Amino acid sequence: MRSACGSCAIRTVRFIDLRWWSIVKVSRVSSEEKRFTTRLERARDYQFKVRFDSPDMQDLVTDETEPVGKGLGPNPSRLLSAAVANCLSSSLLFCLSKARVPVIDLTASVETVTRRNEKGRWRIASLKVKLHPSLREEDLERSKRCLELFEDFCVVTESVRKGIDVQVDIDTSASGAAVPKSEPS
After folding, report:
1. The total number of structural domains that make up the chain
2. Is 124 within a domain?
């Protein structure tokens, strides 16, 4: 069974019921590497059309906020904020569903703080995520185990927390040869 978070590495998950709670037992973790490609195409100014490598996914328009852009779509900071909250929400829902804890509703909010670093460049300083699952009172005790576990299964949040190796190549030639901009860290 796969997690609701499409990039989660769990292949099959089995829950063992012990009295009033469920324990997650990972029976097989995938060791294979998975890849996907996201493409951006400049529409105009700072607006980009984001295309995903699945025919079932709609394109997304991004834009920088004013005064640089026109704010006609989410900017990269907002996308990162949404990605973290979405992955955490999916991981929590997945765990609760496997523990057979019905979720009446789930909302999330993220307060994203940006500030200048020592070089004066804007950076995301922190993300404060609040998840608001709506559960029946009689299920609160059974949900405790999931509340302890779910963050560890969130691919995006744990990747952001640990830092991600980002390699950048810039192709400026007409022949299509890539010019390395930075060495991998």
Report:
1. 1
2. yes
| Beta strand extents in the chain (DSSP E only) | 10-18, 21-29, 38-44, 47-52, 60-62, 103-116, 122-135, 169-170, 179-180
Q: Which DSSP string do the residues of 146-165 spell out, in sequence order?
A: HHHHGGGG-HHHHHHHH---
Q: Which domain holds residue 127?
A: 10-34+76-164
| Residues 151 and 91 sit within 8 Å (Cβ to Cβ) | yes
Structure tokens of 150?
A: 């779910």
One pLDDT digit (tens) per residue for the chain, 185 residues = 344 454 443 333 333 333 333 334 444 556 788 999 999 999 999 999 999 999 999 999 999 999 999 999 999 999 999 999 999 999 999 999 999 999 999 999 999 999 999 999 999 999 999 999 999 999 999 999 999 999 999 999 999 999 998 889 988 887 555 656 665 55
113 belongs to a structural domain: yes
Q: Among 19, 160, 156, which Cα is nearest to 87's?
A: 156
Distance CA 149, CA 154 (A): 10
Question: Is residue 147 in some structural domain?
Answer: yes
Q: Which long-range contacts (CB under 8 A, 24 or more apart) does 111-119 make?
A: 112/77, 112/78, 112/80, 112/81, 114/77
- This prediction has a pTM of 0.76
Which two three-digit tokens encode residue 90? 């999916």
